[in-house]
Amino acid sequence: MKQVEALEEQLKNEKLRVERRDAILRLSKNADFRKLIIEDFCRNECARYTHESGDPSLSAEQRADALNIAQAAGHLKRFLNVNITMGDVADRTIIDLNQAIEDARADEGLEEID
C-alpha cells in the first residue's frame, strides 16, 4: 500500500500546483490586479525605485534599498511564471499518476491474493 499512498500524495501535490496555476491565471485577468500590481507596482513604482538606486544624493544604504525594491517586480513575475509552468506540467502529470495509482492498486490486489 506504500506505493499507492506515495502516488496519491504526489497526485495531491500536483493538483495543488494546478489550483495555484489556475488562481494565478484568474488573478491575471482581474483588472484591479493588472492596474495595481502590474502597472502601478511592477512598472511605475519599480522604475521609480530603479532611478533612485542610481541617485548619488541618496546614501549607499538608501540606494541599495531602492534597488532591492525595484527588483521585487522581477521576483514577482518570475514567481508567477514559474508557478504557471509548474501547473502546466502538473496538469499533464496528473493523467499519468491516475493511471499509475490504478496499476499499483491492481498490483497490490494481486499480491494479497497470492
**What is the strand content?**
under 5%
Average pLDDT: 93
Continuous helix count: 3
Main β-sheet description: none
Structural class determined from secondary elements:
mainly alpha
Low-pLDDT sequence parts: none
Could you estimate the helical fraction of the residues in percent? over 70%
Distance between the termini: 15 Å
Outline type: elongated
| Rg, Å, rounded | 23 Å
> Would you count the extended β strands for me?
0
Give the H and E element order. HHH
Structure commentary:
By secondary structure, the protein is mainly alpha-helical. Helices cover 92% and strands 0% of the residues. The model has no long low-confidence stretch (mean pLDDT 93).
In short:
This protein is mainly α. The protein has helices at 2-29, 31-53, 60-113.
Task: Map the helices and strands.
Elements: H1 2-29, H2 31-53, H3 60-113
Helix pairs in contact: 1-3, 2-3
